[in-house]
Amino acid sequence: MKFRIIKLRSLFQIITPFRRLILCAENRKEMEDWISSLKSVQSREHYETAQFNVEHFSGMHNWYACSHARPTFCNVCRESLSGVTSHGLSCEVCKFKAHKRCAVRATNNCKWTTLASIGKDIIEDEDGIAMPHQWLEGNLPVSAKCAVCDKTCGSVLRLQDWKCLWCKAMVHTACKDLYPRKCPLGQCKVSIIPPTALNSIDSDGFWKATCPPSCASPLLVFVNSKSGDNQGVKFLRRFKQSLNPAQVFDLMNGGPHLGLRLFQKFDNFRILVCGGDGSVGWVLSEIDKLSLHKQCQLGVLPLGTGNDLARVLGWGGSCDDDTQLPQILEKLERASTKMLDRWSIMSYELKLPSKPSILPISAYEDSVAAHLTKILNSDQHSVVISSAKYATSATSNENVLTRGPHAARRLPRRLRLLRLSSWITSVDGGALPGSIYRV
């Protein structure tokens, strides 16, 4: 498949007639940078339904380049994978292995998400619909033992024997038909929404989930992939491996609305937010918008730094070991519930009544000085009388005396500097020669 990428000021435009892109990179960080850049060109308005369905329910593998410390084999051609990172790909959800040259031929059989994705393997009996095991061949751990005969299984020489992606049971090829067909979903079954529970789509194009009796309180997981030093990406991958990928959401791709919309019909469910205090506040705000606060409980898995809420609730300041996820889920299932007050702050703008403008005392001083200068220099009797009236009213103004008593007391000294020894103001505003006018 050919595609063209145009780069202009860090913006990308993808031109391709196909929906499917196979992207390879030298390392995980480079792969994430490419994915982020490609997703940035997608319109957020059109993300909700279409992108949600493609990423969660398509059955396509999510590849990333990886190296292997022990012999590993391609699930497509069954040949050995080189230990060099650039030669091998792994699905971050189901751990399906493939050469780069073989990835395009891999079948879309990633971990099931819906009833439709199970296909003809579905089990129907007198109890209704049940989920079978989803087997992946080969590449078993060294310590693997068969769940039927309890003997060592797997091989470092070839691709052989099987592992269930849900309950993690491992069996020999010869013992596979002897193992019970129904999958018990493993130690996380209380938190898992089985694919059989996602069996219909509403009028808006969203999947509707029905809670089976075996799943009394399913877990909805939100992960901030940008939190911590790449810890968010690692936890996102681990959660998809342990739970149904359809119940795990990246807050950086679509926000919390899609996940809450999927779970809103449940009478009771739990939410786990993996990130900082900002991520928790984001999810809580969306819960308020959808009025779901009476039917869900929220837990926090702190990633990064500054996680005050997680410390208060007893989850610690930070979690950086994604291998401990099974133990974390077990603790979450046994956790107690506490009430949390959350305040809404509403602000109002009130216009205060405007106060009458009062000139500062310096303005009065300058004005009085200007009029006194006119008194000294003018030969017109009317100008002298007018300036004298203003000087009298200004220096006796209540506002001036109230707002600037100290400055008002300085006026006599400033007047004396003008050497007004030949003028005196009468009661009616007339100017008479004699002695200096005192304030």
Which features characterize this protein?
alpha+beta; three-stranded antiparallel β-sheet; single chain; Rossmann fold; disordered C terminus; 15% strand; Wheat Germ Agglutinin (Isolectin 2), domain 1
Structural summary, described in words:
Strand 9 and strand 10 form a beta hairpin. By secondary structure, this protein is α+β, with helices and mostly antiparallel strands. The longest helix is centred in the C-terminal third of the chain and has 17 residues. Helix 9 runs parallel beside helix 12. The strands form seven sheets. Strands 14-13-15-16 form a four-stranded parallel beta sheet, sandwiched between helices. It has a three-stranded antiparallel beta sheet with strand order 3-4-5, with no helix packed on it. Among the domains are: 72 residues, Wheat Germ Agglutinin (Isolectin 2), domain 1 (2-Layer Sandwich); 151 residues, Rossmann fold (3-Layer(aba) Sandwich), CATH 3.40.50; 72 residues.
